[in-house]
Design brief:
globular, 750 residues, single chain, 13% strand, binds S-adenosylmethionine, zinc ion binding, histone methyltransferase activity, metal-binding, Pre-SET_dom, Beta-clip-like, alpha/beta, 15 helices, 7-stranded mixed sheet
């Protein structure tokens, strides 16, 4: 049975990751229909006249011509006949304007009624969708309130608080906003129209024209709107009729949900499967736009197929390579939508659509919400359909490995079953990518912590982030564009001896990585903060800290842009990862869902920045509570100080607040990740980012691990012990061979 978890972190605020089916209308969590999403991302050019297209687009939203006409006229005037603005983002401006127009009219009506008190009428029934006080919490976890100095209030005092963001936009909406930000810059007019529409404080009332007549019969709908702070303007792009639809599965298209990277994805696209062959309990829908039709369907076993049929005038004389097509569209997109960087990938986008489709058409028991009587589903006139296609099972077998991790498990008898626990995105939209969590074996509760994508300062830690502290030698203010393209490395390469650590492809240079891997020298403090914390009156001698190479990335005082090749860690996670329950007794772990090349950035270790003294207090407390802690010491530079002030000896504690790195388990010696200190916004090395890079090529579904640098023989360490189950032939935990372990719980100093 699949359980979609509606609550991930502890605290009163929850996000509902539930699955909703809105009477045949499929929407993603931000309220966009797949249709909208698809058009938005693909920028499919309408073929007919602009006006007809605009009417048609609005018609799919159940907005009739009469309402569209005056608004369109007005917009054409305002934009001086420039259709680009009106058509942008699937007529968003037009939609907004229609909506605003309607709101204005309603407001007028209200005003009129107020000045005509005699007119006695029943109050109109309205469905409130605004961020009501008690709903505001349902979007994200409680975050500590940020003080004016950038610090967060102590953890204890913040647990009951609501998210401190002034804007009520949900974290989930943030990702959506990122997509559209490029559009905003294209026109001031557009931007003002957008600003008025996307402002979260101006949440509308559901318009009857937008809501299916029987929406009241769908209790989940209201809940869904509340949970996602859905803007009614984005609702119900298309109600999908299933009866007599032309839904079908194109079995020649390898499972997109399984992210084939073979590059042959569409080659056999002329082969199709009639839905009734495979759709016993699957879902399908057909989304019709001007000149374009999308069929999307899932099989009972969880594979999703997506098909776009577009009546283009020119017939292709030969079938081009699918990679070439994807590349061309990607390039077009990068250009026209100013989408930045390598993270944008059409394949990933298609995969996301399939994943969301599956999620939204499956109930909590893993059964499809949409039933298609096979007799009703025919596709005789499809240009790409054949009578006897291969069954969907064949395709799944080849991609089996990945789909297991993503959606379901394949049992010994060949049957698939859904994982017991599945959380779609533990980051709740705070990272560039979703990170799911699965428990394929049991129904454990998801781990309790607050997801934060960036470090936050707890209380006493001194982190000197000030532009004034960055001297000209520590930045490259005269650079522009991409520093890696410059023939002479700029000042930011100084830390790495005049050569950048990254290649143009954004991965670590072979030499730099191998130097980091082979570096195993220790440096010793004269007065070690760790020993001081253990015994202040009579501290023992420093046990040593690994000497580590720093990377220095360009930052705000540099003249280059965000796409500069020397800004990798600060751009965040870009690859697909998943938290999963390990079988070997290590608890939760992190695995990659895609092949990773050697030297690629995975994620940084994020947590609360605490002083060594504060950490010590926490450790004492957690010993009492018998709770595991997740601290990492930022000790890469301790050896260079004669006496390190307690407020400068910093740690990252991811026990209560952390990111995905808190799930990376330890492996002795031959781990596939290496942690490298990265200097971004501070020049002294008391505070830095701890970034994980792959030490070798890592295959999809491999668990990610790093060597915590534990001394399994050190009895004096204050943190609770664990018995190492890393499975490495080089395991340092002697207790594996019989004796009891006294090893330490979490990554601390090396
Ligand atoms: C940073 S956390 C890693 C995530 C953790 N497994 C969880 O479930 O949240 C460190 C903890 O994971 C467990 N752990 C990590 N590596 C392990 C290993 N090689 N063998 C056994 N337990 C391990 C220990 O309980 C340790 O205290």
């Amino acid at each position: 049975m699949r359980t979609y978890v509606s609550e991930f972190a502890f605290g009163p605020d929850v996000v509902n990751d539930g699955v909703y089916k809105l009477d045949g209308c499929l929407e993603d969590r931000s309220g966009q229909s797949l249709y909208n999403l698809f058009f938005k991302h693909f920028g499919v050019k309408m073929k007919k006249e602009n006006v007809v297209n605009a009417f048609n687009a609005m018609k799919t939203l159940n907005i009739d011509r009469d309402k569209v006409k005056p608004v369109l006229k007005h917009l054409l005037k305002v934009f001086e006949g420039n259709w680009e603005f009106i058509e942008a983002e699937n007529y968003r401006v037009l939609l907004d304007a229609i909506f605003d127009d309607k709101e204005d009219k309603e407001a007028d009506l209200k005003r009129k009624k107020m000045v005509e008190p005699d007119v006695c009428e029943r109050p109109q029934k309205k469905v409130q969708m605004g961020p009501e006080e008690d709903e505001a919490s349902s979007i994200g976890d409680v975050l500590p309130s940020t003080l004016s100095n950038g610090r967060v209030e102590p953890y204890k005092t913040n647990l009951g608080n609501k998210r401190a963001e002034p804007d009520s936009c949900s974290a989930m909406n943030k990702r959506k906003e990122q997509h559209s930000s490029a559009m905003i810059s294209t026109s001031e007019k557009l931007s003002s129209a957008r600003a008025s529409s996307s402002s979260c404080s101006k949440l509308p009332i559901v318009e009857s024209g937008f809501v299916p007549a029987d929406s009241e019969k769908v209790p989940a709908l209201d809940h869904f709107r509340k949970a996602s702070r859905l803007d009614a303007r984005q609702l119900h792009i298309s109600s999908v009729p299933f009866a007599g639809s032309t839904s079908r599965i194109h079995s020649g298209i390898p499972d997109l949900a399984e992210g084939s990277s073979s590059g042959n994805t569409f080659r056999k696209s002329s082969q199709c499967v009639d839905v009734d062959n495979v759709m016993e309990c699957g879902s399908a829908c057909s989304l019709q736009g001007s000149g374009c039709k999308f069929d999307i369907a899932s099989s009972p076993t969880g594979a999703v197929k997506l098909c776009c049929v577009s009546a283009l005038k020119k017939g292709a004389s030969h079938a081009p390579d699918i990679d070439a097509i994807l590349k061309a569209v990607e390039e077009k997109f990068l250009r026209s939508h100013k989408i930045v960087g390598p993270p944008f990938s059409l394949k990933k986008l298609l995969k996301e659509i399939c994943k969301d489709f599956l999620k939204m058409t499956t109930d909590s028991t893993g059964r499809s919400l949409v039933r298609i009587p096979s007799s009703e589903v025919t596709s005789p006139e499809s240009p790409c359909c054949r009578k006897k296609p291969p069954t969907i099972k064949n395709i799944e077998v080849s991609n089996q490995k990945k789909s297991e991790a993503e959606t379901s498990l394949i049992m010994e008898d060949g049957m698939k079953r859904q994982p017991h626990l599945y959380v779609d995105d533990i980051t709740k939209g705070q990272e560039n990518v979703k990170i799911s969590l699965v428990d394929e074996h049991g129904s454990r509760n998801p781990p309790k912590f607050f997801y934060i994508p960036k470090n936050i300062i707890y209380q006493k830690a001194i982190v000197n982030i000030a532009l004034a502290r960055i001297s000209d030698e520590d930045c490259c203010s005269s650079c522009s564009g991409n520093c890696l393209s410059s023939p002479v490395p700029c000042a930011c390469a100084r830390t790495t001896h005049g050569e950048f650590a990254y290649t143009q492809q954004g991965i670590l240079k072979e030499k730099f990585l191998s130097d980091c891997i082979s570096e195993n020298r220790l440096v010793y403090c004269q007065d070690c903060p760790i020993e001081r914390a253990k015994n202040e009156t009579k501290p023992e001698k420093c046990k040593g800290h690994s000497l580590r190479r720093f990377i220095k990335e360009c930052w705000s005082k540099c003249g280059c842009n965000m796409q500069c090749g020397n800004r990798v860690v600060q751009r965040g996670i870009t690859r697909q990862f998943q938290v999963f329950w390990t079988n070997e007794g290590k608890g939760w772990g992190l695995r990659t869902l895609e092949d990773l090349p050697k030297g690629i950035f995975v994620c940084e270790y994020v947590g609360e920045v605490v002083t060594n003294t504060e950490l010590d207090e926490r450790n004492k407390q957690s010993r009492v509570n018998q709770r595991h802690t997740y601290p990492v010491q930022l000790d890469a530079d301790w050896g260079s100080e004669s006496i390190l002030d307690d407020d400068y000896a910093l740690c990252l504690d991811a026990t209560n607040y952390g990111n995905v790195a808190r799930f990376i388990n330890h492996r002795c010696c031959d781990a596939n990740l290496l942690e490298i200190p990265v200097e971004v916004e501070t020049v002294d090395h008391h505070y830095y980012h701890l970034a994980f890079f792959t030490t070798r090529e890592v295959k999809a579904l491999e668990e990610l691990s790093w060597d915590y640098g534990l001394d399994f023989d050190d009895d004096s360490h204050p943190i609770k012990a664990f018995r190492c189950r890393c499975g490495s032939p080089l395991c340092r935990d002697k207790s594996r061979k019989g004796s009891r372990s006294k090893a330490r719980a979490a990554p601390s100093s090396r």
